[in-house]
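User: Fold this one for me? It's DUF3108 domain-containing protein.
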Amino acid sequence: MRLLSFFAASILPLLSVSAIAAPASSTDATQLTKSHTAYTFPNKFHQCKKTLNYNVYFKGSKIGHYQRRIIWNGKQADVYTTAEADVLITKSKMNMHSKLRWSDENQRFQTDSFQRTIRGLMAGNVSATFSKDGRSSTVIEDGKTQKYAEDLMPIIDGDTIGSQMRLDLIEGKKNFDFIMQNSDETSHYYFTVAGTEKIETNFGTLNAIRVNQTRKSDRQLSLWFAPSLDHQLVKATYHRKIIDLKAVLMSQKMDCPPKQLFK
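Assistant: Here's what I get for DUF3108 domain-containing protein.
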């Protein structure tokens, strides 16, 4: 069983808030550029230090937990992720550190680098660095180096997708797409807002924005973001063949600077 691998690739990156490529389209990139509100930097929404804790379930049974710590420093952020899973008597741990920043030129968040280490099942080490414009990347996986390039839009990692998707939802966008750097490829992800639903959470009944991955008929990735909880991801599900995963936000802590710093 490769449950941790599936979970890390399909859900963990978007708790930064996914995993299969779809055909690229220059029209999508053009629409994305035209539709984005111009910012010098959206610091009103991206200055708090945040700690988010999730439980992870496989077919209803808890198999692990996951924590994200987001630390902003001006236009840049460090995202620290730790995860543990216990599958088939095999315990696995994942540690990840991503560096991202706001690009005034591209009007979006971009990735500078990330490092990921998995111990136990599917053990391995991956590190990646990205060019200033985000159009190229270098990935080292267990000592093997691969280079990638993309003309359509900047290549970003899962943590950066999480920050960008949250901003897109705050802006009221209904459709968005990203090119994500995986350990051995780049993948184009498409998402659409399915609507608003009332869901039961560890924080009570909340109104949540449901976002679905599109253009993939053999799997379903759904994400629920709660506007009343800082537009954070409160629930995620991933279904494909025998894979039935769910992540649920259990607690959050925010340390925000004084309001006058938002001016």
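One thing worth pointing out: The longest helix spans residues 158-170.
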